Amino acid sequence: MALQDPTSELSADPYAAYTRLREAGPVHRIAGTDGLPAWLITRYDDVRQALADPRLSLDKRNAAPGGYRGLALPPALDANLLNMDPPDHTRIRRMVSRAFTPRRVAQLREPIRKTADQLLDAIAPHGRADLIASYAAPLPITVICDLLGVAPQDRRDFRVWTDVLVAPDPAEPTRAKEAIGTLLAFFTQLIARKRTSPADDLLSALIAVRDEEDRLSEDELMSLAFLILFAGYENTVHLIGNATLALLSHPDQLDALRCDPARLGGAVEEFARYDGPVPLAIRRFPTEDITIGGVVIPAGETVLLSLAAAHRDPHRFTEPDRLDIGRDATGHLALGHGIHYCLGAPLARLETEIALSALLERFPRLELDVPYGELRWRPSMRARGLLALPVRY
User: Which of 143, 139, 140 is nearest to 119 (CA)?
Assistant: First the structure.
């Protein structure tokens, strides 16, 4: 089955398009995120198994010549975990994993709630707001900058840069290059300042690992800082925004959550399944010919694993198109599976839980300020997120 315009269909109405593809077959040949042919995997069992299959490499050097044309990042930003296989992936992941243990993340609960309350204090008098720009975006960027040790005066509008990288405009190719150049300059200067004035933060600790223990290259150090900031910010913004919209467009579920706020932890898992921030897992390249769903995929070709399609697979989730905060959504793949499972998963869950709890407590009459059909989504196959979420309260 072919899509008329894959990028348009899979960004404007992804779940309807993925349902048609999943029902038509487990594997499809489509135009990928870079416009070149790719294999799309649509069914839950296949996607879950592929996420943990060591034969599916994240290393772009395993792509067939001319068969993949992703975003061109300089080595100083590209030597990150999303482009690595073991043993380098194992070595670097082990270094940073201690910062994201459940115990360490739990210590952030009070600071995160304080930040959420401050953001809500700022918008409360106005009666209406764009919840993405005023709340869902600044909350995670504050949290991740505090974790890394980026001083308030050094913080920038990362949303402008990340928007360009996640959803580049083909008509303006220079904007992506400019954003990459700006990001590279930012991290170069930030690391230089941290080397001069280290503190009790994650970035200072990583610099010490690089300079004193020589367990990171300079490119790996900068790429890791970039990935922590980029992934820790980008995905959480959309998880918070999409979860809020899911509640506002399902009044029965919103009422159920208000009546029993203790259900919020489980509800976050359902929000991640129902409308998660990452429709597609990071592309993979088979290191040998591999069979998925009865289809032989040649070594080196691009494989895209559709988390969005897997999450609406009725063979795994009963009535998958229905939001149900009481559902046991464990087993969802929004945060990955296998050795590439999201390092920041405990932090993303905590931020979303606190963000929603604070929001619903502060504004008991929160509602959409525009008809649902007027909401605009990012034109991207990679990210599922709103450009704005106008609300009134």
Answer: 139
